[in-house]
Amino acid sequence: MIVTRFAPSPTGQLHVGNIRTALHNALLARKAGGRFMLRIDDTDAERSREDFVEAIRADLDWLGLTPDGEERQSARLALYEQAFERLRAAGRVYRAYETAQELDLKRKILLGRKLPPIYDRAALDLTDQDHAHFAAEGKAPHWRFRLDHGEAIAWDDGIRGPQHFDASAMSDPVVRRADGSWLYMLPSCIDDIDMGITDVLRGEDHVSNTAVQIQMFTALNAPPPRFAHEALLVGGEGKLSKRLGSTGVADFREQGLEPMAINSLLARIGTSQPVEAKQDMTALTDGFDLSTFGRAPARFDEAELLRLNAQLVHAMDHADAAPRLPEGMDEKAWLTIRPNLERVSDAREWWQVVTGPVECPELSDEDAAFVGASADAAEAMDWSDESGTWKALTEALKQATGRKGKALFLPLRLALTGIDHGPDMNALLPLIGRDRAAQRLRAAGSRPAA
Ligand code: GLU
């Protein structure tokens, strides 16, 4: 049974990168009929906020990524304590007292000698007396995990292939602060073991954490899960963009985007598979395959997102769109307008133009005379072939007046819709209908000229 987890810190809103990680973990689990868990990484009590926890849940629900279970780290402190005691008894964690400034100085000295800035393990040499001395001074220790320099670190990454790390080239990570609070690394392993996580899929910024965590799993007598690290997400221009770091579900909703457009894009960018609009999660799940993920950054292109969104809207049933459509917009209107929309929310603009009232901007005397006279043609013509009404009207007027191009189309559009741009008139005119069309043309024609 595959069990994956998405482990955000509730210190802000989820952004596109987080959403992508959540999606991939959900797909990985669902494809295998497994479980997708949400783990709230809220050990940082100061920065974690309950409203962010709620927003994370709501965002996942909206995206269709509702997890199969949830744990939160702040409720699991007793578990960390137990595991920590075991590591302590086994000598895998040790006390250290260096201040941030002292550590910084050590790093600078090493860098000055062109040596890697690895922690020198000075604290391992402290005697019981030294510890007593610090205690007497009121200095509490922080704790480091002691890497095993003799144990080779290797894993077969689900995306990056075979990985090798040399523990002696890494610093023993601080796992616990002097105030007893936890840093991310160790609780994450303890949870992965306790929650039965079989697959950890996360961004490649975690690769070196994985190297350390693999030793933590071993020290905790547990087999490490499978790991896969995906390439970073970049903007459409191919650069890491600040905007991506702040774009989240709220923006997508505001832009009127479909969750499946977002999922369709995020599931496939960075893979060798084509990006296609999929209507539901099952369709995405079927094709999900880590072996198609590449090492190059995944490009998140907003234009592509909108294209996918349009495709989904063009295939959307009236019943699915209805809750978001303006009052009175029936199935026939939806089916007529649908092919012209990029977003469901764009329907509002169309409907306003259809139902009116519209106000034609001032026309020249000539144009006013032209549209006014067009009302008769609009009334006289055959409206039974709906898709051909605009063509029929403009053809008839072209014949009658010799007008063509912009001189023909623009005054009509202005009179019929009140604006010089917007929805395709072929689709719009049948919805406006004979009576409203004639009335609007007449009204625009009878307006006094300036
Ligand atoms: N809370 C961690 C983060 O957001 C979790 C990383 C992980 O997936 O282990 O970076």
TrEMBL record:
UniProt domain Glutamyl/glutaminyl-tRNA synthetase class Ib catalytic: residue ranges: 2-277
Aminoacyl-tRNA synthetase class I anticodon-binding domain segment(s): 368-444
Domain of life: Bacteria
Enzyme type, top EC level: ligase
Statement: the UniProt record of this protein carries the keyword Transmembrane helix: no
Residues reported to bind ATP: 242
One GO MF term attached to the UniProt entry: glutamate-tRNA ligase activity
Subunit annotation: Monomer.
Entry protein name: Glutamate--tRNA ligase
Source organism of the structure: Croceicoccus marinus
